[in-house]
């Protein structure tokens, strides 16, 4: 019986690699557009003295390499097998980290760290309530006091204070 | 002519009790972090670098050097005891180290690992001192064409040797150079790619990005592929730790292996892009090839263990050679060290040699003294650090994340840096999952401003003529070297991809012709 195409690690790898190559080409092209779309004296990539010279050169290189990557991905013997893993859990942890960075000014360091530290432990599979409670209290207290008390770095207090 | 004021400054740095304390704390912390499986030496240096911004350079940099050396050595402890390398650099150590532990000789393995590490580190530090000073006098005479070519050689080497794919390495280096373009143009002062944000005027914050790419991405990787508890590991507690100590005669008999592996490690470490994780395997492979008992390798060979440990530890001082002389990072850890030095207002390279010779001499002395301290801390670690390897990731990684958050914020007291941290974490994760090496991007980002300035200055001097790159003797030599690097790397890449082999197969052999 034939395996469904979507289950083939090689096909998934090729699709992902192509997507990445497109992303790289898109970054390169958008840098090139900025460089060429800005009027001189900045936007003159051909002029050595212009601020656009080096970014234009590098963006051209990256765009070209992105195209080569796209072509190389679909070669018969291209090794682009994507290794599976718990990507979903990593994505949740990444969203948690992003939320932590965005909310620090609003919620303050204490609230953010007392929630984020045990939540990341939950992502790692910790389920014992007393460990989670200890993680919510001990590391934030020690680390924040170390930075504030010893190094004189003060973090945003947010809505708590 | 010896400048006594430089010697005095260096000795004063070494004699300071604060330097000594920082070095000791760094070493102890480094060994501890290195011994924790999953926490890498780069991660340790990146996460703890922000602590040093509030210290004097004579305290902060020895602290980071201590962490670097301690972590590379510390990785061998869990590799020997529980067959789980604490750092990638200790992967080869696990092969014979754990086999010795299973034979009830863990004490001998741990002691040999320590003594080999200290011996290799000491010898490689002497190489650093001997090589750095004459090379520095040459580097001072370099002009912008030579520097442009030197940066290009470093970027090409890093892009091609740090990953499995030549193409992906080149793309990563290119992306790093693009990120380096964000901010004010170094020559004209125009804003580039800032999108109106004042937070990007000074460019993308280096340290938060480094912490994100090395530490946050590591946490995400550990979540994706949780560390497997193999049968061997689960029974590790049942293995009897201890056994007989290492005898002097056994260690003395290993001196050719240690010297050979140190030489290899020091050479590989001085080349940009090749870190301890590659050096340990090459040294191990060479030792096996030259051994009279190659069959013992992997089954508890003292030679194998000594080769792996001296190979990876010799990289540490050697990686400082390109950093101190040319400002080019030898590996990812020295990239973080450059970031820390820049935060202290120092620019590694010929300028540092001219402006801060006393500090540099003091740093060399500190590196020598670190070996003596490493011996003492290592012996204590052998005795007391067995339990540390059992800290669960559920506790460890959330604490690391909190340190990352606070460390990234501490650099500029800016919440924008936290976004850079998370973006770096996401980018590092995607790169690692898809086989892109992270090192070329970081090193491209670090070398970008210098490379751009050197390239544009050269072309402005020559009115746009490329002849400036071969009309000077120094630049001509470097150009030939660059061509050689490109040919060797391209040959390697094409052979790996199977393209060259195919072409040769298509050619008819001489016998077929006739």
From TrEMBL, chain A:
Keywords: Membrane, Transmembrane, Transmembrane helix. Residues 21-156 form the DUF1468 domain. It comes from the Bacteria. The keyword Membrane applies. The chain crosses the membrane at residues 12-32, 52-76, 88-117, 129-155. This is Tripartite tricarboxylate transporter TctB family protein. The lineage of its organism: Bacteria, Pseudomonadati, Pseudomonadota, Gammaproteobacteria, Oceanospirillales.
From TrEMBL, chain B:
Residues 21-443 form the DUF112 domain. Keywords: Membrane, Transmembrane, Transmembrane helix. It comes from the Bacteria. The chain crosses the membrane at residues 12-36, 42-65, 72-94, 114-140, 147-163, 169-188, 200-221, 264-287, 359-382, 394-410, 438-455, 475-494. The keyword Transmembrane helix applies. InterPro entries: DUF112_TM. Pfam families: TctA. This is Tripartite tricarboxylate transporter permease. The lineage of its organism: Bacteria, Pseudomonadati, Pseudomonadota, Gammaproteobacteria, Oceanospirillales.
């Amino acid at each position: 019986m034939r395996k469904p195409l979507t289950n083939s690690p090689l096909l998934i790898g090729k699709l992902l690699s192509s997507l990445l190559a497109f992303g790289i080409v898109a970054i390169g092209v958008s840098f090139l557009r900025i460089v060429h779309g800005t009027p001189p004296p900045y936007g003159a990539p051909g002029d050595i003295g212009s601020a656009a010279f080096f970014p234009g050169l590098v963006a051209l290189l990256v765009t070209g390499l992105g195209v080569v990557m796209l072509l190389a991905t679909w070669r018969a013997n291209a090794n682009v097998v994507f290794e599976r893993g718990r990507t979903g859990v990593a994505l949740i942890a990444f969203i948690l980290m992003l939320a932590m960075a965005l909310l620090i000014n609003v919620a303050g360091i204490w609230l953010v760290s007392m929630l984020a530290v045990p939540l990341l432990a939950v992502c790692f599979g910790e389920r014992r309530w007393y460990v989670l409670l200890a993680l919510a209290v001990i590391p934030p207290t020690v680390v924040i006091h170390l930075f504030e008390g010893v190094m004189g770095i003060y973090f945003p207090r947010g809505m708590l204070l | 002519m010896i400048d006594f004021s430089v010697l005095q400054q260096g000795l004063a740095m070494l004699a300071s009790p604060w330097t000594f304390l920082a070095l000791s704390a760094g070493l102890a912390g480094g060994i501890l972090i290195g011994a924790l499986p999953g926490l890498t030496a780069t991660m340790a240096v990146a996460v703890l670098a922000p602590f040093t911004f509030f210290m004097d350079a004579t305290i902060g940099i020895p602290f980071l050097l201590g962490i670097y050396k301690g972590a590379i050595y510390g990785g061998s402890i869990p590799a020997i005891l529980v067959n789980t390398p604490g750092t990638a650099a200790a992967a080869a150590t696990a092969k014979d180290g754990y086999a010795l532990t299973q034979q009830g000789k863990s004490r001998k393995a741990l002691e040999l690992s320590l003594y080999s590490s200290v011996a290799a580190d000491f010898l490689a530090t002497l190489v650093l001192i001997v090589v750095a000073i004459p090379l520095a006098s040459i580097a001072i005479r370099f002009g912008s064409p030579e520097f442009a070519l030197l940066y290009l050689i470093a970027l090409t080497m890093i892009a091609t040797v740090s990953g499995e794919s030549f193409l992906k390495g080149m793309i990563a280096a290119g992306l790093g150079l693009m990120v380096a373009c964000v901010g004010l143009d170094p020559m004209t002062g125009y804003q580039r790619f800032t999108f109106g944000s004042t937070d990007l005027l000074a460019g993308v914050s280096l340290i938060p990005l480094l912490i994100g790419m090395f530490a946050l991405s590591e946490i995400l990787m550990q979540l994706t592929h949780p560390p497997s508890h193999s049968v061997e590991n689960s029974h590790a507690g049942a293995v009897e730790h201890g056994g007989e100590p290492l005898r002097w005669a056994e260690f003395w008999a290993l001196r050719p292996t240690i010297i050979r592996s140190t030489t290899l490690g020091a050479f590989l470490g001085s080349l940009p892009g090749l870190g301890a994780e590659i050096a340990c395997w090459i040294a191990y492979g060479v030792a096996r090839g030259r051994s009279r008992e190659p069959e013992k390798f992997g089954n508890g060979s003292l030679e194998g263990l000594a080769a792996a440990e001296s190979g990876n530890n010799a990289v540490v001082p050697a990686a400082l050679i390109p950093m101190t002389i040319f400002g080019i990072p030898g590996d990812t850890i020295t990239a973080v060290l450059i970031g820390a030095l820049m935060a202290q207002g120092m620019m590694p390279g010929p300028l540092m040699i001219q402006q801060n010779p006393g500090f540099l001499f003091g740093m060399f002395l500190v590196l020598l003294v670190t070996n003596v301290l490493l011996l003492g801390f290592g012996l204590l670690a052998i005795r007391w650090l067995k339990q540390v390897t059992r800290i669960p990731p559920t506790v460890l990684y959330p604490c690391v994340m909190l340190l990352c958050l606070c460390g990234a914020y501490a650099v500029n007291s800016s919440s924008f840096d936290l976004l850079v941290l998370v973006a770096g974490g996401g980018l590092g994760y995607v790169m690692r999952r898809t086989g892109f090496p992270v090192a070329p991007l970081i090193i491209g980002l670090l070398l970008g401003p210098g490379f751009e300035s050197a390239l544009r200055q050269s072309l402005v001097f020559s009115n746009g003529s490329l002849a400036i790159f071969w009309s000077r003797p120094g630049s001509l030599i470097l150009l030939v070297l660059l061509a050689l690097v490109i040919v060797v790397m391209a040959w390697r890449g094409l052979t790996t991809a199977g393209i060259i082999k195919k072409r040769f197969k298509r050619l008819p052999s001489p016998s077929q012709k006739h």
